[in-house]
Amino acid sequence: MMNIKKTILSCMLMLGFVSASAQAPEQEMEYDFNPHWYVQVQGGLQHTLGEISFGDLLKPNVQVALGYQFNFVLGTRLAVNGWQSKAGSIYPKGGEFSWKWKYVAPTIDVTANISNFLFGVNPHRLLNVSLFAGVGANIGFDNDEAAVSKAEINKYYPNAITMNAPLDYLWDGSKIRFVGQAGVMADFRLSDKVSLGLELSANTLSDRYNSKRAKNADWYFNGLLGLKFNLGDAAVLVPAGTNFKSRGIFDRSPRVIEKVVEKKVVEEKVVEKPVYIDKIVEVEKKHEPLRRDVFFTINSSRIDPTEGKKLDEIVAYLQLNPAAKVTVTGYADKGTGNAQINERLGKNRANVVADRLVKQYKVDRSRIIVDSKGDTEQPFAENDKNRVTICIAE
C-alpha cells in the first residue's frame, strides 16, 4: 500500500513540474551612487594658536551642517561653527595673561570622498574618509576680557608703543572677518542612514582676530565628534557593468551584491526538479507549520553538510503545499563578537540558507521571506545554539 502511495505522489509531482513559464537567466546587480542630502551635528574642542600652553588655549566648540552629495566623490555643505576662542601672551613683567571671546562662523565647503574615489561606491563600507575646504565669515563678539587684560598689562608697560604695545589690535563690539578652512572627515558607519563622524579642521583669519599684532595670520583648529544622518539612500542597485562612473580608481570590476530574477513567459517545456519522496511521505499529512533549525559554527555562515539535509524536509513541505512560504531568520549568539558583527552574521546566515533553497532546490524566491535578528533575540537558552538559522514553512 505504501509503495502504491509513493508511486501516485511521484506521478502527481512530476505532472506539476510541466509549466508554461520559466525563469530567465539571473542578472548580476551592483551598487551605484545616489545623490542625497545629509545633516551633521557635532561637538568638540577648539585650540587657538598662541603663546601660552596648549591646554590653556582649549575652548568648547559646536557645529551643525547641511550638505548635499552631488556624485560619488564631490559634494558641498553649509556649516555653522561657533562658541568660544581663547588667546594669551606671556610678558617678562606681569607673567601670563589670557582672554576669551565668542564667535559664530558660517562657511561653505566643498567635500571630496576619498574612499569612494579610490575604491568605488560601497554603502556597507565601515569607514569613509573625506577632505574638505571652504570659505566663510567669522563673527566675533563679547571681547571684554581682552580689554581687561590690556589694562592689566599696561600697568607693567605704561609707555609701550609699536610692535611691543600689548593687544595693539584690541577690538570691541562685533567684528566680521573672512575665514578660510580645510580639513579631513572620517565617518564610521553605524547603519545605512547614520554614521559617527570625526572631523579635524584648520582655520585662518586676519592678524586682528586675537587682538594681538604679530604681522601674520591668526589660526584656530577644531576637533569635532558627532553624528551624520543621510536624508536619502546613498546608493541604489543597477545592472552590473553599467556604472563605471561610480567606481574608484582601484575598483574596476563588478561587485555582485545580489541577484534579481525576471520571470518571462516562454515556450512550454519540462523543468526537472529534485523530488524527495521519502521526505514527502513523512510530511504529506502535516498542515501545521514545519520548523527546521540549521546550526552554524562560531563566526561562520557556511552550511555544514549534515545541517543542509534539514532543507530536504523544508523543500518537501513546500512541494506538497504550493501556497506555503518559508520564513528564514538568522541569529548570532550574544556571548561572542559585538552587536555590529552579530548583525552581519545573522544576515549572512539567513541569506546563505535562502540562496541554497533557490539555487540548489529551485524554490521560487517569492516563496522565501528572509529576516535577521542578529543577537537582539536569543531563541535558545544555550548560548552556542543561537548560531542558527530558523526555517519555518507554513
Describe it for me?
The protein has 394 residues and is of the alpha+beta class. The chain contains seven helices and 17 strands. The strands form four sheets. Strands 3-4-5-6-7-8-9-10 form an eight-stranded antiparallel β-barrel. A hairpin with a 4-residue loop joins strand 4 and strand 5. The longest helix has 21 residues, at 339-359. The two termini are 28 Å apart. Mean pLDDT is 83; it is low at 15-27 and 254-272.
Keywords:
alpha+beta, 394 residues, 43% strand, 8-stranded antiparallel β-barrel
Structural class: alpha+beta
> What overall geometry do the principal axes of the alpha carbons give?
elongated
Main sheet attributes: strand count, strand direction, barrel closure:
8 strands, antiparallel, barrel
The overall pLDDT average reads 83
Q: What is the spatial order of strands in the main beta sheet?
A: 3-4-5-6-7-8-9-10
Number of helices in the DSSP assignment: 7
Give the tally of β-strands: 17
Low-confidence spans: 15-27, 254-272
In whole angstroms, how far apart are the ends?
A: 28 Å
